[in-house]
Amino acid sequence: MISRLYDDKSRALVAASIERRRADARGLLFRSLLQVCLLMTLALLAVLLLTVAFDSSEQLTTRLWDFLGGTLRSQSSDDKLGVHQGIYGSMWIAIIVALLAFPVGIGGAVYLEEYAPRNRFTSFIEVNIRNLAGVPSVVYGLLGLALLLNGQFFGLDRFTGGRSTLSGGITLAILVLPIVVITAGEALRAVPVSLREGAYGVGATKWEMIRTQVLPYAAPGILTGTLLSMARAVGEAAPLILVGAVTGRLGDNPGLFEVSALDDRFTALPIVITSWTQQSGRDVGFATAAAAAIVVLLVLVLIMNSAAILLRNRFEKKRG
Amino acid sequence: MTDTRAAAAKHSTEQLTVDQLQIAPSRRHREVIIRYTLLVAALVSVLVSTLIVLSLLREAWTFVTEVVWADTWGQQGWFPRRGLYDIPTIIVPTLIVTGIAMVVAAPLGLGAAVYLSEYASQRVRAWLKPALEILAGIPSVVLGFFALTWIAPNLVGRVGRTTFLVLGAVILIGYAGVSALIARNRLKQYREGAADPSARIAAVAAIAMLVLVFAVAAGWTLNVWLDFAPNNAGSLAAAGIGVGILTIPLVASISEDAMAAVPDSLREASAGLGARKISTATAVVLPAAISGIVAAFIVAISRAVGETMVVFMAGGAADASRFTDSPFEGGLTMTAAMASLASGTDNVVGEGLTFQSLYFVGLLLFVITLALNVIAARFVSRVREAY
Description:
The complex is a heterodimer.
Chain A: H1 2-5, H2 8-19, H3 25-62, H4 64-69, H5 84-115, H6 120-133, H7 137-149, H8 157-160, H9 165-189, H10 193-201, H11 206-235, H12 238-242, H13 269-279, H14 285-319
Helix pairs in contact in A: 3-14, 5-9, 5-11, 5-13, 6-9, 7-9, 9-11, 10-11, 11-14, 13-14
Chain B: H1 2-11, H2 18-21, H3 25-66, E1 77-79, E2 84-85, H4 87-119, H5 122-137, H6 140-158, H7 160-192, H8 197-227, H9 236-260, H10 264-272, H11 277-288, H12 290-306, H13 309-314, E3 321-322, H14 334-342, H15 354-386
Antiparallel strand pairs in B: 1-2, 1-3
Helix pairs in contact in B: 3-15, 4-9, 4-12, 5-9, 6-9, 7-8, 9-12, 10-11, 12-15, 14-15
């Protein structure tokens, strides 16, 4: 019986029935449907970038330096129209975010991952941070408005000067704080136990162990998270509108490193883009100006994002 | 040093004292100081949430106690500077924008995620994932500009009416199909366990609900289609598509994570039984990852409800708006109402409660997004428990 199954004819039959290519029409359709989803997403991204590049070319090729050095104007044909005030605001907002949110966020993450006892209070803090990360950005603007402009709770308006770069920066630092804590916490959790035990084994205290072993090992991951959150802060506009960023005309044009202007009225790149986009209905020239401002903003944000992505990929590869 | 200690230990009766083993007091003090500094850093987040809730409640309470409630329902629109706060005027456009955003983001994001997780080769993934991350990193103001200058004239203005009817019909037929399936199952359950009268009530109620929702949606679609006026300026539809594009990467990344968490042994078992790739993907991986995918949709809805700039720029309304339920007209969402009230002028002025109305809307938004996020977190933890 068995030997009969092994004769050539049966073998050929079995082989044919296994190897015969059957048309899998449904599978093919499904697969191409999925590809269409992905391609449409990428096509939208491409159209977006092309539209911006096309619209901005006029401003960026004919008067790049004037545009980078110019200020907010009421006419799009004005020679002095440009984004300098926006760059000033966005740059200092990024600096304030780095100074406030990074130390507090990383410190909080170190406490939660390394020190905190596993009890209800700790998990309350963790849940609280997770929920904060999902609060819409415009609500943070309301907090900034109450806390920093109207001086509720602590009377901070005297310190920030009300509607100022400082207020905007502090509001956005509060906005990205939960993101910094969460990403830094993930990086800290990835540190192997053996490193910690090694440090304890040679007599290190807890903080010495953290400082010499945990933080250096987690540094790339933490840096990735901070870069991403900084990019988020630089691109954010809604909270700034609530804390009174200027959308119309702004007289002052401080030099990029003029610290004394931090408590003056301010604007930022996303606000400039918003304002010009909205004015493009009345004055079409503003559409090209807005596109050019978008290019400036995207260059800043994409540099931060791609640095973060590259950094992460490199270290992921290294550690396998 | 070890030698002297050893020598000392030899001569004394006690071999080692507790004091000798303790660390230097300065080192210990530093440990304590650092520990408490870090605790303070962790508590900042609690302070932030407390301040958010307090500031929202304080002004919102003034609004709730002092507003004329007759002016918040059934008025002609949202005119805060005149003291008319018609709440449906900002709620209905929020629903429209969120709905359109999900019609765009759910299939595109989920499709991209299934492709990346089940089909794409390592090399293709290495290219596509960063591309999606770039899209995720694009600031919302850029999408606002794109929605107003490209989506509004090209997608909404030109092909709006036909697309709307076709898409509306597809969604409604799909909805009717799913409803019919649910109704059949309910009726079957009822027949099998016919003794329980509550099952009958539940079945009838569920079917009535499905029919009602279908009728309202169909009527609304037809009404909007008949009223359609092409319009190159901003509209809720343009803003909704913009918000949808913004949330595609969010849907894609969360649902891809959910599918990546499905153990390979399930895929191998499915393949071992002779299933084709499509069957493995749709009948094994997707059901196993369903909690995560639902969570992705809920998070995306929460994000779309809270998105401000795209709607503010491309929603086609100034700081006041008449009531509208058509996606082809300009309208104010909750977030856009807040942004436009705060922008432009130096102070939020107008009728007495204008400033407080800002915080009232903020509180509504806060509660809605918080509830959605908590539900999404529940779904995610269900995935974690399963594997």
